[in-house]
Amino acid sequence: MSSLNIKRWIVKPFVFFTIVIILKSFLAWGVIFGDLLPWKSLLTEIPFAWALFCIIERFASKRKLGYYMTVNFVVTAIFFAAIMYFKYFGVIVTYHAAEQVGQVTEVGDSVFSLMDPYYLLIFIDIIGLGFYFFFNKKGRNYKKENINRSGAKLKYSLLFAVSLGLCFFNILPNKASMNEIKKAQEMGILNYEAYTIFAQGKPEVVNAKEITQDVVDKLKGIGTTDSSSFQGAAKGKNLIILQMEAFQNFLLGLKIDGQEITPNLNRLLGDNSLYFPNFYQMVGQGNTSDAEFVVNTSFYIPPRGAATTSYVDRVLPSLPRLLQENGYQTATFHTNDVKFWNRSELYSSLGWEHYYDHDFFGDEDTFFFGASDEVLYRKTADKLKDMSAGGQPFYAQVISMSAHHPFTIPEEKFRMKMPERYEGTFVGDYIRAQNYADVAFGQFVEELKANGLWDNSVIMIYGDHMGLPIYSLDHDDKELMTEIYGHDYSYANMLNIPLIIHGGGNTDSQTLEQVGGEVDIMPTAAGLLGVSMKNNLHFGQDLLSEKYNLLPERYYLPSGSFIANSGLLIPGNSFEDNTQFQLATGGQKPSATEDEYNRALRLLLLSDNYVTQLPEKISK
């Protein structure tokens, strides 16, 4: 074939855009699946594109090139969204994420900080073709020459049938796969996106009356529990739950070239506190707001979307409601606008008496989403002093925000000098931001002491979610994490957040190795305060009474993943081809079982059913 014939063949829209889609699929597969030469994408992505191209060739008599460019633009948008979503959440994007588009604009800096410049190559053809067809005379002529070509309609009808058959061949054998990432890889990203739209499977419905605490406890592996020495040890005390933004467990006790990263929290660990190093996040797409939901309800996050959109039409049994029934005042403190992540609805569903948001904290010393942690803690401490003046105990949840992704805090907030090898890295920015958060926390401690609240309060501190996703780290960042940990950074390390309890009645500091998660905070707090959970169905457990735990995970890991004393398990297409990891603190060789896997899935199903059958909230 002569070079002239090759050129004529390549410039045909069907051939040209096939090549474009192949190159874009290579880029997407390289980022998401780590496959640099993903020849499998030819068998999965191209049949989907060809099916659309055949429809254009078969039915479009005019503006054919415009239809090709529209399909190209849509496919490009899907691939780019999949890349960016995976870098941020570690899962494959679906159309459900469109529900949260409004929130993405609020975290635009966070999302785009994850973008490597070469990702933008996925748009280069669109920009180039736009200039060529609209600003170049040859391009305008080419567009006119091609828009009316009808082609061999029978040929394209047959190719459409073959392409559609290949799409079904890729989809149908992989429908049962539990792992969404493997499912997308086996089906192809485009097929997977179409599958999620049209395959709306109905989950099993379980009557809420059949979901009892005994049933939940049996699934969790909880036997008859004897009261621990901590039961009611903090009865009558205030409860302050501090949720620290993106705070991971490895920060505690960490020194870099002799510099202590969290000196104030480290000091607290030695001040008659209980420390749980094997504690794990349990959030989903709502991140910080999901943590607020899980901590205050002891339910799991919804199967898709954020709790603030899926569950806030219900009257939620909650820690604020439980403590109000036992004579407590309740308030939550967050420097951002209460409308962000639909918190205004979440807070009414949880039954908070008061919330304090941007209107209260104002624009003093702002960065990221609102006033700095220093302002948050100072104004919160003053308000808590006012609340305690009447002698009635209070429950306050305080949400810190200054150490938020992408962790580029203002230079005037720098409180440590980073070693040269950390400068300009994602890990370095993260550590410096968390160092500032620790400094602000130290001021909060001093203000609580000055206001006479420190000794009469239980303080529970935890990180809301990870700050350093494995899939967001480049080569240099991974090397720094290996330096910090002394081994490769694992999924168990990534999900590991700390829980610290101060003022719980213990007379010495203790490190407690049992596994725990955010779902356990409500029953643990209730146990310390001597408040009965008998009439509150909960999926967590009192960490001071139980040793074994089973924590189903969602969203940042594929469906079916869970953490237990036996380790972290991530399923493949099924349980049989799973991958297991040691717990964050190491210990025994991971040995998670299929029984635990099945029980974890059942727990999620029961939580989903129970919450969706709660009484609907009456809107004011």
- Architecture of the largest domain, CATH level 2? 3-Layer(aba) Sandwich
Q: Report the principal-axis shape.
A: globular
Topology-level CATH name of the largest domain: Alkaline Phosphatase, subunit A
Count of DSSP E strands? 17
Q: Spans of 5+ residues with little confidence (pLDDT < 50)?
A: none
Largest sheet: 9 strands, mixed
Number of helical segments with 4 or more residues: 24
Summarize the amount of helix as a percent range. Answer: 40-55%
Number of domains: 2
Pfam family, one: Sulfatase
Protein name: Sulfatase-like hydrolase/transferase
Binding site for Mn(2+): 245, 288, 464-465
Pathway: Cell wall biogenesis; lipoteichoic acid biosynthesis
In terms of topology, how is this protein built?
Layout: H1 3-10, H2 13-32, H3 40-59, H4 64-89, H5 101-104, H6 108-112, H7 124-135, H8 137-146, H9 153-171, H10 180-187, H11 189-198, H12 213-220, E1 238-244, E2 255-256, E3 259-260, H13 263-269, E4 273-280, H14 288-297, H15 307-310, H16 319-325, E5 329-334, H17 343-350, E6 354-356, H18 358-361, E7 366-367, E8 370-371, H19 373-388, E9 394-399, H20 426-450, E10 457-463, H21 475-485, H22 491-495, E11 496-502, E12 510-511, E13 516-517, H23 521-529, E14 550-552, E15 562-564, E16 567-570, E17 579-581, H24 594-612
Parallel strand pairs: 1-9, 1-10, 4-12, 4-13, 5-6, 5-9
Antiparallel strand pairs: 2-3, 4-11, 7-8, 10-11, 14-15, 15-16, 16-17
Helix pairs in contact: 2-3, 2-4, 3-4, 3-9, 7-8, 10-11, 19-20
